[in-house]
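Deliverable D2.4 — example input (structure tokens):
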């Protein structure tokens, strides 16, 4: 091995010194020849005779230099360098072709690398934690729905931890976003999480400043925590640096805590956490699931083994506890849990951009075939002078490699420009969004993509061009050389491929666009127009605080309703359109037999203020709205939506009936006083859920989000509302949105995939049209003599146009049929991404066929008109 390495280095050094060796060789040959000449002249020969005899004695000096060159240099490397230099010279002579080819391929590579950067960051790159592959989410699996939920009960977690033997560590956590936090005497929102002592060890985290919590920091019994760890970005934002944050006291929802540690930069699990507070053992009932559980597998324990072991534990608990009869345990890779909702979308985008790249490669392959037709005499002469088929293929592939690598380099720069745009367009819920960039893996992918693209578009033209009929080419002078092996067939296959892929992309884009339009115009059941949304958080600690909070919101709403231009104002504890997820809970009807947990659909509970339905224009179907008389001293009241009324009270009026969401006898029954229309509250694409509304004036719920409907610009009310809130309590933070913006955020994912695939589809259609044009232009050039003869014997311009257009449209028709079949197959696979659109809807397919058909027809007309303009006499003279 060492000897081979030395030999390689020696030959490489010799190759680098080739010019000096060549000069030395020429000088040495000349010296020997002159010595022979002098010796012959001394023997009596004339100078001319001596010169001729010396040359004969020396032999073929060119062959001598080539043999010496083979000894001095690494021949293959030398040949490769010569091929590269020749390729650059040849491509420089055809700079228009070269620029066009590089532009088309760079666009395909750049778009592909940009999408790959997103896929790589979100789906392929391991989570940024030590031993990330061993970190899992331990979840509740519901047999009634066949789905797993991250929500777990406290008693279940304690049993899982005590009975399992597959985890190195297990941790539990809970908490909400937008907790009111006092920092430097200023109220702000912060996402706080209460975590067990093993939380940070599960993720292998260390503190960048201070320390992380230990078992000693866990509060005993009902005591409150007195310390906290904050995220690095949060420490920098509020204290200037991580070190400066240590020792400061913050108040999280009324509890004072000292910052003892700052997490490593980038760590924010779960979600976008800002603060972590140590918490004791979880508690509660088995039918309440407020916690999340994470764990780290023991070394050597597979995910499948852990899942099977925990499923056994869950099944045993289901037999022991009635509350668990419909639940067991699921163990999911944390990376799969974080990316499960976006995997299909990202792989669809990747497939779409690869289809565009294939179309670009097919286009370039056709252009190379057309260009080779103009180089037939050159290639024939090279073959006649001794260049073998392999040598010709290698030279042509070298030119393709140069094009591919240059296009790859340009594509990488294009990817750097596209990635920020993709990030800006991406939905906010896309995991690891702030980590997306063109990294080393993406650069290696770009290099591999360039080489693979070179093979895709360069190999077929190189092989076909090397199959030359030398005698025929030389006899014809190379003007209209042909390739053996049916040259038009590969070109036809490439056109058909382009057309088929374009139809698939356009049809899928049409289906997604139709689905997105349906989603945008879905009847939500409430208005989003000119509605200001103010998220607030009022910290409470005692029952007295709860009463003060109710009065605070009542006063703010009363002041708002008196502002000119305000049509209505109200509050709700949980925002709509996916902003705050609500888990369904079991409900019970007085006088009806109690169902077991999970045996009937759950209901979502929403505390609201009076005028909520008026503010969002939700129709009241029966009964009354809440009013000021619904105070804590009065009997509890509730309002249900039509969906719940249909299921719980079929063919019976629900007004006056009683309902509750807890089987505990201490929980008061609530009288149903109204029925309202259905609303798509969480997900616009899902059917309206069963909803139960309760009055926040009676102490239900938490802090409110304030909704204000106005006839003016809703953003103009933000300063007024901020003033009202500050007057009532300066420690209540506020963040503003509009209901229109919340709806736009709720449909961000379908909008993103529709926009990206739509752009790819348009690009594919343009590339397909260019491909059809280039092939037909080439074929017309090859059939110049035939067309001239047809014109000479009486064929008219219309006949020629019909001939050329018919030839092109036959290929297009085959591509349309294959593309239609492929589009139908792909649409069925993507059915889960469609809303109120069937994969069999004919509109998008007809649209794709019409667009590609019209584009193809226009692309065929130009060569056809050019062919019809051929003058027979001039064409035959040129032939």
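Example output (designed residues):
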């Amino acid at each position: 091995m060492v000897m081979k390495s030395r030999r390689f280095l020696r030959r490489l050094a010799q190759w680098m010194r080739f010019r000096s060796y060549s000069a030395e060789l020429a000088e040495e040959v000349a010296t020997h020849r002159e010595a022979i000449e002098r010796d012959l002249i001394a023997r009596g020969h004339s100078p001319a005779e001596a010169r001729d005899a010396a040359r004969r004695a020396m032999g073929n000096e060119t062959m001598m230099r080539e043999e010496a060159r083979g000894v001095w240099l690494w021949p293959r490397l030398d040949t490769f360098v010569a091929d590269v230099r020749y390729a650059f010279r040849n491509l420089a002579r055809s700079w228009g072709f070269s620029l066009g080819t590089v532009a088309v391929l760079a666009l395909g590579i750049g778009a592909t690398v940009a999408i790959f950067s997103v896929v790589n960051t979100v789906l392929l790159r391991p989570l940024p934690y030590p031993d990330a592959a061993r970190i899992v989410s331990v979840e509740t699996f519901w047999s009634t729905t066949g789905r797993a939920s991250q929500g777990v009960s406290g008693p279940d977690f304690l049993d899982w931890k005590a009975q399992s033997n597959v985890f190195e560590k297990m941790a539990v956590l809970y908490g909400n976003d937008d907790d009111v936090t006092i920092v430097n005497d200023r109220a702000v929102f912060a996402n706080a999480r209460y975590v067990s002592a093993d939380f940070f060890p599960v993720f292998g985290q260390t503190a960048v400043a201070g320390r992380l919590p230990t078992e000693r920091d866990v509060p005993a019994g009902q005591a409150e925590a007195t310390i906290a760890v904050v995220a690095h970005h949060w420490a920098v934002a509020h204290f200037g640096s991580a070190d400066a944050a240590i020792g400061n006291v913050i108040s999280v929802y009324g509890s004072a805590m000292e910052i003892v540690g700052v997490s490593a930069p980038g760590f924010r699990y779960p979600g976008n956490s800002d603060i972590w507070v140590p918490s004791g053992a979880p508690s509660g009932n088995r039918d309440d699931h407020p916690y999340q559980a994470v764990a780290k597998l023991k070394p050597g324990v597979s995910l499948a083994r852990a899942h099977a072991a925990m499923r056994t534990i869950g099944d045993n608990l289901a037999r022991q506890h009635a509350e668990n009869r419909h639940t067991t345990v699921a163990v999911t890779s944390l990376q799969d849990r974080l990316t499960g909702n976006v995997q299909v979308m990202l792989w669809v985008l990747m497939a779409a951009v690869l289809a565009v790249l294939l179309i670009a490669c097919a286009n370039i392959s056709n252009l190379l075939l057309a260009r080779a037709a103009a180089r037939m005499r050159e290639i024939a002469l090279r073959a006649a002078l001794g260049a073998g088929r392999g040598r010709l293929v290698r030279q042509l592939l070298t030119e393709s490699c140069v094009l591919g690598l240059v296009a790859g380099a340009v594509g990488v720069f294009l990817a750097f420009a596209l990635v920020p745009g993709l990030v800006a367009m991406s939905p906010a819920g896309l995991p690891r969004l702030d980590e997306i960039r063109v990294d080393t893996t993406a650069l290696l992918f770009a290099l591999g993509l360039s080489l693979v693209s070179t093979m895709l578009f360069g190999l077929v033209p190189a092989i076909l061009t090397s199959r030359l009929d030398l005698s025929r080419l030389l006899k014809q002078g190379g003007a209209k050389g042909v390739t053996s092996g049916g040259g038009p067939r590969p070109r036809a296959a490439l056109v058909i491929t382009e057309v088929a892929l374009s139809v698939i992309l356009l049809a899928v884009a049409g289906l997604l666009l139709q689905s997105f339009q349906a989603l945008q115009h879905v009847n939500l059941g409430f208005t989003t127009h000119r509605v200001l949304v103010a998220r607030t958080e009022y910290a409470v600690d005692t029952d007295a605080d709860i009463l003060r909070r109710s009065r605070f919101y009542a006063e703010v709403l009363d002041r708002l309703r008196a502002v000119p231009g305000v049509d209505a104002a109200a509050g709700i504890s949980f925002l709509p359109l996916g902003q705050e997820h609500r888990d369904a809970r079991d409900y019970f009807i007085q006088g009806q037999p109690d169902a077991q947990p999970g045996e009937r659909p759950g209901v979502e509970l929403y505390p609201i203020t009076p005028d909520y339905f008026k503010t969002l224009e939700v129709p009241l179907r029966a009964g009354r709205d809440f009013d000021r008389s619904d105070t804590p001293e009065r009997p509890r009241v509730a309002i249900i939506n039509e969906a719940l009324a249909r299921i719980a009270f079929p063919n019976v009026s629900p007004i006056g009936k009683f309902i509750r969401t807890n089987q505990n006898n201490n929980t008061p029954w609530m009288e149903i006083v109204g029925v309202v229309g259905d609303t798509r509250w969480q997900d616009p694409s899902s059917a309206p859920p069963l909803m139960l509304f309760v009055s926040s004036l009676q102490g239900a719920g938490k802090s409110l989000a304030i909704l204000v409907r106005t006839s003016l610009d809703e953003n103009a009310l933000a300063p007024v509302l901020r003033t009202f809130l500050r007057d009532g309590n300066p420690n209540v933070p506020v963040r503003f949105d509009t209901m229109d913006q919340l709806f736009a955020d709720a449909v961000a994912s379908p909008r993103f995939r529709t926009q990206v695939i739509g752009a790819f589809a348009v690009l594919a259609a343009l590339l397909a049209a260019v491909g059809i044009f280039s092939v037909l232009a080439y074929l017309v050039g090859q059939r110049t003599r035939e067309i001239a003869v047809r014109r000479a014997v009486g064929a008219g311009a219309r006949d020629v146009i019909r001939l050329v257009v018919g030839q092109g449209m036959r290929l297009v028709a085959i591509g349309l049929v294959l593309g239609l079949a492929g589009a139908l197959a792909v649409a069925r696979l993507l059915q889960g991404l469609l809303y109120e659109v069937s994969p069999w809807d004919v509109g998008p397919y007809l649209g794709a066929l019409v667009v590609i058909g019209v584009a193809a027809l226009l692309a065929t007309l130009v060569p056809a008109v050019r062919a019809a303009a051929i003058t027979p006499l001039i064409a035959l003279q040129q032939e």
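The chain has five domains: 2-73, 75-130+340-486, 145-325, 502-521+742-879, 538-732.
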